[in-house]
Design goal:
Blueprint lengths: L9 H23 L14 H10 L4 H22 L4 H22 L6 H13 L5 H28 L6 H15 L3 H39 L10 H28 L4 H28 L4 H10 L1 H16 L12 H22 L7 H11 L14
């Protein structure tokens, strides 16, 4: 029998905490090398590290985060009902606060910010909040299939009518990015602003449909209390482990090979289509495996970092900016890929320890406290009462 769940859903926090290491393992490359997303290969790249990241992490963990966002939406609904408060105004304030944090994050630290996207897509979920769990699932499947099939067809078309990559122009853009990150804080911000239009296009046409689909799946799971009572859904978890996980791994290997060895080509466009179709299955397999792991005390290791996920997400960008840009050491393009991977482990280990320490005396993370204040329109208590401390 699974471990009893306290008032706050430990499994949800633990999943969110685990998702953070995947987010970090992807985002770090946008800081560490100017070649990330450039369409050309990094001469100093490490194919083994790149393949591992592309196969097991890239395009998977933002889906997990999106699923958990949708699940948490149902908890927000329950919280508003318990407080006898109007739900729509609360969520409008919450999404506005999230958008403000996201815009500041994108401009100052990381143009690949996901918070603003979540704030906007969250309004769609708000409009659909009366939808049934079954309809939410079918709408999500439709979005995933439509997006994946479209990109797969675009990839096939790209292969049939290939357009050569302008390597010289791409290399020049890489050099400009590196120079900006090694310049001054002002050039760092200017580079972020330059990247924002292309990043926005990537989000709108690639990530947003899948993120919204995972919102809907998380929303349906929240309505059915899937994470609160996972043992009641063993058929689903078994299917995800025995079928979803293998299919997802095959798609991930296909995506990783083409992304690493054929960047910027029609083959990579095809790979995007394939991963949009198969990555949700791999993400589901991760969830199924983690829920089994979290029936042990392992959940208590990841839960604290997940409880303050928003603060930790921003903190990751702060640390990476201090390491790789002119805000600090300016080491962009200077660390071997293996060292960057090691840095991910170190940063996450620090966050695990700091999060547990912080929550000994605080109810919320700093940004969680701020967002809660905006959501409720009241000043929440920050300190944890002595009786509740371990």
């Amino acid at each position: 029998m699974p471990v009893a769940t306290p008032s706050r859903l430990v499994r949800l926090d633990a999943l969110r905490g685990f998702a953070l290491v995947g987010i970090l393992a992807v985002n770090v490359w946008a800081f560490a090398t100017g070649y990330y997303g450039s369409g050309i290969a990094d001469p100093a790249g490490d194919p083994v590290v790149q393949f591992a990241v592309s196969m097991f992490v890239e395009t998977k963990f933002y889906l997990l985060f999106s699923f958990l966002f949708g699940y948490s939406f149902t908890l927000q609904m329950d919280a508003a009902a318990r407080a006898d408060a109007a739900f729509r105004p609360r969520m409008l304030r919450r999404h506005l606060g999230l958008a403000v944090i996201g815009v500041a994050h994108a401009v100052l630290l990381f143009p690949g910010d996901i918070l603003t996207t979540y704030a906007v897509l969250g309004l769609v979920l708000l409009a659909l909040r009366d939808i049934s769990a079954r309809r939410a699932v079918w709408l999500a499947i439709g979005l995933l299939l439509a997006s994946g099939v479209l990109w797969t067809l675009l990839g096939v078309l790209d292969l049939l009518t290939p357009t050569p990559v302008d390597g010289a122009a791409a290399a020049a853009r890489v050099a400009e990015t590196v120079a900006a990150y090694q310049g001054t804080p002002a050039t760092v911000v200017a580079e972020h602003l330059r990247q924002l239009p292309s990043t926005l296009a990537l989000v709108v046409f690639v990530q947003a449909p899948s993120a919204l689909a995972m919102f809907l799946l998380g929303f349906a799971a929240g309505k059915r209390q899937v994470l609160a009572e996972p043992w009641r859904h063993r058929t689903l978890w078994t299917w995800l482990l025995r079928a979803g996980l293998p299919i997802g791994l095959v798609g991930a290997a296909f995506y990783a090979y083409l992304t690493v060895h054929h960047p910027g080509s029609g083959a990579q466009t095809l790979a995007i289509g394939v991963t949009l179709l198969t990555a949700p299955l791999l993400t589901g397999g991760y969830v199924a495996a983690l829920l089994r792991l979290f029936e042990t005390r392992a959940a208590t290791v990841f839960a604290p970092v997940g409880r303050v996920a928003l603060s930790n997400y921003i903190l990751q960008s702060v640390i990476l900016s201090l390491v790789f840009t002119a805000y600090g050491l300016g080491l962009v393009g200077k660390l071997p890929y293996a060292a960057v991977a090691g840095l991910v482990v170190v940063i996450y280990a620090i966050q695990l320890a700091l999060s547990a320490l912080w929550l000994r005396s605080h109810r919320y993370g700093p940004l969680e406290w701020l967002l809660r204040a905006v959501t409720t329109g009241a000043r929440p208590a920050a300190a944890r009462p002595p009786a509740l401390r371990p």
